[in-house]
Amino acid sequence: MNKQEIIKLENYLVNQFGADIKLKPSKNDDCTEVLLSGEFIGTVYKDEEDGEVSYTLTMSILDIDLE
Q1: Angle at 66 between CA 21 and CA 64, to 5 degrees
Q2: Is 57 within 8 Å of 34 (Cβ atoms)?
Q3: What predicted TM-score, i.e. pTM, was given to this entire model?
Q4: Which residues, 6+ apart, have CB-to-CB distance to 5 below 8 Å?
Q5: Using CA atoms, how far apart are residues 8 and 17, in angstroms rounded to an integer?
Q6: Alpha helices of the chain — where are they, by DSSP H?
Q7: Beta 52-58 vs 21-25: how paired, if at all?
Q8: Per-residue pLDDT of the chain (67 residues; tens, 9 = 90+)
């Protein structure tokens, strides 16, 4: 993802969730890291298919975090 896409996605997520969300490029180019108040919470992947672009937010929740 390029810098403009990351900025647009970050603004979208902040507007949707009203939280301190930041996006930063990951070490590999296939995704972007999602941070909530500075803590890593997931990734965003870009998907381009049939001329359409979509983004997938993936967030894993460990069972120990639910206690």
Answers
A1: 105
A2: yes
A3: 0.84
A4: 46
A5: 14
A6: 3-17
A7: unpaired
A8: 889 999 999 999 999 998 899 999 988 778 999 999 999 999 999 999 999 999 999 998 989 989 8
